[in-house]
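Title: Prediction job returns without error message
Component: structure pipeline
Severity: low
Priority: P3
Assignee: unassigned

Description:
Job completed but the reporter wants confirmation the result is attached to the right record. Sequence as submitted:
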Amino acid sequence: MKKILLLQTGGTISMHLEKGITELNPDKWSSVLYNEMPELQQIADITVQNVFFEDSSDMNHSHWLELTAIIADSMNQFDGFVILHGTDTMAYTASALSFTLRNLKKPVILTGSQVPMSNIRSDARRNLVNAFELATCELNEVAICFNDHLYRGNRSTKMSINDFDAFTSPNYPALAEIGININISPSANQKSNKPFSSQPFFNDAVNLLKVYPSLNPNNYNHINLSLTKAVIIEAYGIGNIPIKGNFSLLPFVEKCLDHDCHVIVSSQVAYDSVDLNVYESGRILSGLGCLSAGEMTMEATLTKTMHLIALTETSADFDHLFLKNLSGERN
């Protein structure tokens, strides 16, 4: 029987409903897990480690580094890993771990639930059983298991607040579909010939700018660009921004670049890819030296940027690695 390490980080799946109020309660969660789901021990030999109990809105790169360290240190002791996590930032954590845990030879599966496990109509049980079964399979990457789907972690995004089908993978097929049988897709990562390595590096000197009609560029004059290493512009469509008159963002972009601050162009649209060669504004941005996020999700774009800022020493190295496919995050 395979050995699986379950890492508990909190989230809705860990909450307990009492008198109409849901709260994080590690003691009550553990009793629910062991008393109501003994069948999990039929799937694998499970070791539980309570790492922390957080609402996922409080997650940050310090938590990603802690999870990275635990998994890296336990890599030779277990056949797979399951991480229980809140849904709001699950795709961020999955993306972050895909960059810190390079050339995985074992599955790291994140899951959670939309409804606490203690509720009668909860999706927690199904997601847990599926996650543990997948953690015993021949998968070699960080992935999210939710509602009978398995998605590549750094291709996933949350799309629903109240639906059990909470996640999707806009620009990459599901790694597995779960019915009576588990059908793993050929799109799942093949085992790398390179040795596994842990690269626990993040720098949060990043600003995210969302473009909208009548956005006043003066709103961003307060940003201290001497302390900012990258600005991600969440542009329209294929990578368009305002370039005319008082609402032009080009002076701000040029100011960023003059301060050796990377400018990355992402999209507000989940599907398809940023292409800075199609329209005038994109061509101008590309000519100035801005980078395209391509088909990457915002979660992958942000965490990859934070990771590479900490990992690289030169702008050329950053640009090269950002445009490169490191962990299946871009084509």
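Comment from assignee: result matches the submitted record. The chain has a mean pLDDT of 91.
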